[in-house]
Amino acid sequence: MTPADINAALAVRNVQPLYGYSSGAPTKFRSTIHAASTRIYYLEDHEIDLDQLINAPLPPLPLDVAFTAHWLAIDGVQPAIVQNPTPADLRELSSSSSSTSPNAIMAANAAQSQLQQQSAVLISSNNPDQATINGDVLVKHVLSKELQLYHDKITEAVLDADDKVSALAIDSLQNDPGIQPLLPYFVQFMTQKVFTFI
Prior knowledge:
Blueprint: H1 3-12, E1 29-33, E2 39-43, H2 50-55, H3 87-96, H4 102-126, E3 132-133, E4 136-137, H5 145-158, H6 163-175, H7 183-197
Helix pairs in contact: 3-4, 5-6
């Protein structure tokens, strides 16, 4: 029996075949006669000399990872992660790009807009009550229509006079992992209602 036989049997049963065990060469069997005059078949093994194995050169090291992937920009905003340039790097890029090539001009414009966005975020973190700067929204949220509808229904259900409806809404808030993008909106809603009812 060979690995190809096992793979064929697995394919008949709609099971994914085994990988890494197939052999390109046909299997060679040898036979020997046992003391009780019965013929025994065994696989022919290649003998390995331990001296050659010990003195053989080591295999080459595997290559390092040559590329990585990450998002450069999400909805036009570059996230502050390790792979992306820091604001200081962007300032250096914009100051050192005195070339008039189109790529250099585009890079300088992108760096300048990135600096403006990051400075707006820094200003907003210093002043949490300030939601806009020069009429521009600091954080751009993109919510699907389903999430917007879910938010509207939950806020209505929480304020409903029927305790069963509000209990179901609160239970949905506790157990639904897909509402993470709505979390800031629910927190804002709850704080507004707490201040309203106090």
